[in-house]
């Protein structure tokens, strides 16, 4: 009995779905743009994004070149956005802002366009191309609409994405350090510091520059060790000057002592 009831429910659900699809297809083939558009708006207001989008796309052909064209284009793009299809939404919104720069929907369209890249931006361990696109779009929006209601939210997003780039630069550099590629680590760490001087990782990056420089010098051939220890001591002094209370001080003091001892043993001038 229970099994028969379940079969009946499944059959009813299938019939509803098929009936809905059949009704949509019939409507799209009706050749009645006003009816298609009206039904699309009905679904849109009910937040049935996929159905609304299908009908907006069906109606778009009929309204090309009319005053309603921008509305249909915008609503369709917003359906994709609300349905979390950010790739498609960003493409549609980019087309919209290029074609309908004077539309009443332009501010909303450009705001959504920026948010598409924000939602597509992955965590800092992955490629940050989308994060770069998001930052460009968000800053363009804030520049064009400085009085927008979205400004404060976009400022927070901008800070979040910028920090994500800081994290990515740090992770990339630390990866070189972790696998013992100290020369590459030093270059990557210095680049991260130069590119993002206000990074929350600044202390750790400067410490790793000292540590990686010490290890690089220690593992070098004898005729290159002197110059590399001197370079390491320069980094050491810069770190101590900026972070005199750091928890790393004892450790880097030990490294500096070893470097100086090496220089003294080899009768090298050491005024550091």
TrEMBL record:
InterPro entries: BamD, BamD-like, TPR-like_helical_dom_sf. Keywords: Cell outer membrane, Membrane, Signal. It holds the Pfam family YfiO. It comes from the Bacteria. Residues 33-166, 169-265 form the Outer membrane lipoprotein BamD-like domain. This is Beta-barrel assembly machine subunit BamD. It comes from Alistipes timonensis JC136.
């Amino acid at each position: 009995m229970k099994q028969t009831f379940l079969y009946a429910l499944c059959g009813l659900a299938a019939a509803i779905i098929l009936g809905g699809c059949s009704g949509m297809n019939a409507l799209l083939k009706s050749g009645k743009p006003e009816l298609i558009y009206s039904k699309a708006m009905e679904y849109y207001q009910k937040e049935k994004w996929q159905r609304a989008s299908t009908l907006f796309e069906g109606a778009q052909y009929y309204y090309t070149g009319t005053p309603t064209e921008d509305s249909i284009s915008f609503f369709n793009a917003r359906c994709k956005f609300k349905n979390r299809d950010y790739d498609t939404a960003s493409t549609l919104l980019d087309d919209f802002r290029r074609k309908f720069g004077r539309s009443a929907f332009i501010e909303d369209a450009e705001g959504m366009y920026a948010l598409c890249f924000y939602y597509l931006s992955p965590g800092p361990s992955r490629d940050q191309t989308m994060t770069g696109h998001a930052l460009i779009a968000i800053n363009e929006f804030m520049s064009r609409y400085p009085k927008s209601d979205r400004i404060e939210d976009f400022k927070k997003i901008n800070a979040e994405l910028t920090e994500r780039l800081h994290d990515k630069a740090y992770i990339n550099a630390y990866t070189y350090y972790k696998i013992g590629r100290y020369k590459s680590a030093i270059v990557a760490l210095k680049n991260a510091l130069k590119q993002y001087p206000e990074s929350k990782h600044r202390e750790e990056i400067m410490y790793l520059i000292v540590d990686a420089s010490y290890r690089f010098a220690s593992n070098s051939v004898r005729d290159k060790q002197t110059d590399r220890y001197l370079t390491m001591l320069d980094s050491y002094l810069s770190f101590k000057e900026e972070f005199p209370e750091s928890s790393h001080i004892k450790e880097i003091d030990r490294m500096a002592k070893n470097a100086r001892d090496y220089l003294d043993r080899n009768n090298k001038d050491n005024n550091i």
